[in-house]
Amino acid sequence: MLSVTGKGRLVNGLLFLLLLGLGVLMLYPFLWMISVSLERTSNIAVPFPPRLIPEQFSLFNYKLVFENGVLFKTYANSAIISLFSVLLSVSSALLAGYAFSRGEFRGKKFLFFAVLATMMIPFEARLIPMFSMFNDLGMINTKYPLIFPAIINALGIVLVKQYFDRLPEGLRESAKIDGANEFTIFFRIFAPLTGPITATLAILAFQDSWNSFLWPLVVINDQDMKTVPLFLSSFSSENGSRLVGVTMATAAMSILPIVVVFLFLQKYIIRSIALSGLKGE
């Protein structure tokens, strides 16, 4: 019979193999995308059966993507939009989350429930009113319609409120005894403690802005204003034939910034998850 230690090792080993298999399963589409993008003849016929190692290794598809310089312009558009969207989204979420967590004002619960209710409204229901509003303001075919909606980040507000709820109330009380006002308490005491949740919100906001397709498709018609997802969609079909290799190469380049941002900020996300289980005394 196996001992308790032996059973524990067996269970851990089985869990490791299960997680390894799931990890490989989830990575396979990404690896196949890279393989197809490096296949010289993938624009003529999609490699079948799917294989991870190209038969005719070539950077031809990447040369097609970079040759006219449009990718760099769309990268710049998406980078500017994503940067300002992240700044607005994170800033508003931190301020609103602190107000709902530590603030004392009339109607706080009602307003918080109203914020939660906005999460139940699908984007498709808000699309036409938003388009009409920005059209009346003369902002169609500009970056503003892609940036300003990030000010309202209901999920971020909820996450920040929960994060602040778990921080010790004694920090705020001590500062108030010393005569600090709410702005001083937030910026000098609580804001420096928000690194983990700020990193989490930044990644979520960046990913949402960078990958957005439907809203930019509605409000952007100018070729010079296209974002990376719109540029990617233009490679899906050309002259009636699907350019699979070029599309996969563009897709690989489009997700690169998200991977880089996640690799740099992943330790803060793990710390945020760990702190979510701690309760302030």
From TrEMBL:
Transmembrane segments: 12-34, 75-98, 110-134, 146-164, 185-206, 243-265
ABC transmembrane type-1 domain segment(s): 75-265
Record Pfam families: BPD_transp_1
Superkingdom as given in the UniProt entry: Bacteria
Compartment(s): Cell membrane
Main location as per UniProt: membrane
The entry's keywords: Cell membrane, Membrane, Transmembrane, Transmembrane helix, Transport
The keyword ATP-binding is annotated on this UniProt entry: no
UniProt membrane topology term: Multi-pass membrane protein
Matches recorded under InterPro entries: MetI-like
Sequence similarity: Belongs to the binding-protein-dependent transport system permease family.
Protein name: Carbohydrate ABC transporter permease
Organism of this sequence: Paenibacillus brevis
